């Protein structure tokens, strides 16, 4: 395993298009549910323990070698919002393109052939980690970090929040991120015996509903 | 205290076929009870209910059929679930049968005497070309309770499932109990939906925050699986500030509603149901 490969994959500048998504923060800011660093932190904690945990479980399972198409179906079932499924597949398609150029592998090529319109992003992320010689913990760390860093940086732009404060929010979430990774990887390790039903499926109703509201806006700063 | 008195009377009468061994008296145990309903299409095209069995706190009553649809209701025969209880409902509509299952009152999850969690498992099986409507009243998570609800539905090809779930976090003016509610649906062998909501004391942080429930205390989901939705999926749209309908990745639509109170949730789900079943 190469620690440097993890930094390459986790870098916000990795050209996979994630910067265009706010993780539901744009809708929550407009609806008045995120107004400052404190409400951003509560938003991020909720997102981490739901969407973040689910993404980390899928990514860890893909990194362990679980059939990516079974995981893609599991991701669909865990994403009732049509807007979020579309966003997840679009992000997956962009990541897959970048990953195949960065760490070419037969598994990435096979997934691209099987899902030409894109597989869910966490599944691609896990398979990319695998292609880069990384493990399930690494894949899960990328997923949980993305689940909160997206909303935090988006809120800096949306609210004019002090970037130092936004970064401090992320730092305060670090212990919870460690814990989320542990539970996601533990679940992923049960998949060979129990199937994909063992993976986390935590729901966040307001993120699901808000994603549909956001998708209907005529003008928006972020794609989701 | 009233609750306890009722239980003491009702338990031996309704749910305990044999006395527990003396040694077990020292171990706190809850009630285990399963209600079973099977709907079958008869030669004339009507639906009959060859199995209609209640147990303990889960009594089942046959209601008047409407057309080809058989109807039954769960009737709470005592206060349940309390901590430590394990309740289950297994309902099946065999090929071509039509079953509508309701409940006569809200289910209130209450704490037990020894702090153990309670479990409530609902298993719905919809045969080929069959229809199941599972429309129970609200589940109320009372302060101090800890309930795990699992709803598992399996829908065969051409089957129709209408499933409503509503949760109310705490009775009026009290904090909620701990509630873990998983809804998993397979359709023609394919996984269609797998979601779990955890809320209340001890749930992962953020459950009451701006990404999950934002202090709102009532939520509901209405799932409609219909073969027609395979070719003509519903268009995703908002139904209210905190309510939307979305097509799933399969022949189904899901309405999710969050609101300050149970009545608002019910009104949204009722309106959506009329539209989705039209």
TrEMBL record, chain A:
Gene Ontology cellular component list: cytoplasm
Keywords: Chaperone, Cytoplasm, Nickel insertion
The keyword Mitochondrion is annotated on this UniProt entry: no
MF GO annotations: nickel cation binding
A Pfam family of this chain: UreF
Cellular localisation: Cytoplasm
Biological role: Required for maturation of urease via the functional incorporation of the urease nickel metallocenter.
Family classification: Belongs to the UreF family.
Complex and partners: UreD, UreF and UreG form a complex that acts as a GTP-hydrolysis-dependent molecular chaperone, activating the urease apoprotein by helping to assemble the nickel containing metallocenter of UreC. The UreE protein probably delivers the nickel.
Name of the protein this chain belongs to: Urease accessory protein UreF
Organism whose genome encodes this protein: Streptomyces indicus
Classification lineage: Bacteria, Bacillati, Actinomycetota, Actinomycetes, Kitasatosporales
Automatic annotation (TrEMBL), chain B:
Main location: cytoplasm
Pfam families linked to this entry: UreD
Spans traversing the lipid bilayer: none
Domain of life: Bacteria
Keywords: Chaperone, Cytoplasm, Nickel insertion
Cellular-component GO terms for this entry: cytoplasm
Protein location: Cytoplasm
Subunit organization: UreD, UreF and UreG form a complex that acts as a GTP-hydrolysis-dependent molecular chaperone, activating the urease apoprotein by helping to assemble the nickel containing metallocenter of UreC. The UreE protein probably delivers the nickel.
Listed name of the protein: Urease accessory protein UreD
Originating organism: Streptomyces indicus
């Amino acid at each position: 395993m190469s620690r440097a490969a993890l930094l390459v994959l986790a870098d916000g500048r990795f050209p996979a298009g994630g910067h265009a998504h706010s993780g539901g923060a744009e809708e929550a800011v407009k609806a008045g549910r995120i107004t400052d660093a404190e409400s951003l932190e509560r938003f991020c904690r909720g997102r981490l323990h739901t969407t973040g945990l689910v993404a980390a479980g899928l990514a860890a399972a893909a990194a362990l070698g679980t059939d990516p198409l079974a995981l893609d179906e599991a991701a669909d079932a865990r994403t009732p919002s049509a807007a979020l499924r579309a966003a997840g597949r679009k992000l997956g398609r962009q990541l897959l393109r970048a990953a195949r150029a960065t760490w070419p592998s037969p598994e990435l090529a096979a997934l691209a052939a099987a899902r030409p319109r894109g597989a869910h992003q966490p599944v691609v992320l896990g398979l990319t980690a695998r292609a880069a010689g990384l493990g399930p913990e690494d894949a899960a760390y990328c997923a949980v970090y993305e689940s909160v860093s997206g909303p935090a940086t988006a809120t800096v732009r949306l609210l004019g929040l002090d970037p130092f404060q936004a970064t401090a929010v992320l730092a305060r979430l670090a212990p919870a991120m460690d814990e989320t990774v542990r539970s996601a990887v533990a679940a992923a390790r049960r998949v060979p015996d129990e199937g994909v039903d063992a993976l986390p499926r935590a729901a966040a109703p307001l993120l699901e509903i808000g994603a549909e509201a956001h998708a209907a806006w005529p003008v928006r700063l972020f794609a989701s | 205290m009233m609750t306890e008195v009722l239980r003491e009377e009702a338990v031996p009468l309704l749910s305990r076929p044999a006395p527990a061994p003396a040694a077990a008296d020292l171990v706190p145990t809850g009630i285990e009870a399963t209600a079973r309903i099977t709907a079958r299409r008869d030669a004339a095209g009507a639906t009959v209910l060859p199995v209609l069995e209640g147990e303990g706190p889960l009594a089942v009553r046959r209601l008047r059929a409407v057309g080809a649809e058989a109807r039954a209701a769960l009737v709470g025969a005592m206060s349940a679930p309390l901590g430590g209880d394990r309740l289950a409902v297994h309902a099946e509509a065999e090929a071509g049968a039509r079953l509508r299952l309701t409940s006569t009152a809200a289910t209130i999850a209450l704490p037990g005497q020894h702090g153990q969690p309670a479990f409530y498992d609902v298993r719905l099986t919809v045969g080929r070309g069959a229809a199941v409507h599972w429309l129970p009243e609200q589940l109320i998570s009372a302060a101090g309770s800890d309930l795990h609800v699992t709803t598992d539905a399996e829908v065969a090809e051409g089957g129709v499932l209408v499933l409503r779930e509503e949760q109310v976090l705490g009775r009026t003016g009290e904090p909620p109990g701990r509630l873990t509610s998983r809804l998993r649906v397979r359709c023609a062998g394919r996984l269609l939906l797998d979601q779990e909501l955890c809320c209340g004391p001890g749930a992962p942080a953020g459950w009451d925050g701006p990404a999950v429930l934002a202090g709102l205390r009532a939520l509901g989901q209405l799932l409609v699986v219909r073969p027609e939705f395979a070719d003509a999926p519903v268009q995703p749209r908002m139904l209210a500030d905190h309510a939307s309908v979305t097509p799933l990745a399969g022949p189904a639509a899901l309405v999710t509603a969050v609101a300050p109170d149970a009545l608002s949730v019910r009104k949204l789900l009722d309106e959506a149901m009329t539209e989705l079943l039209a």
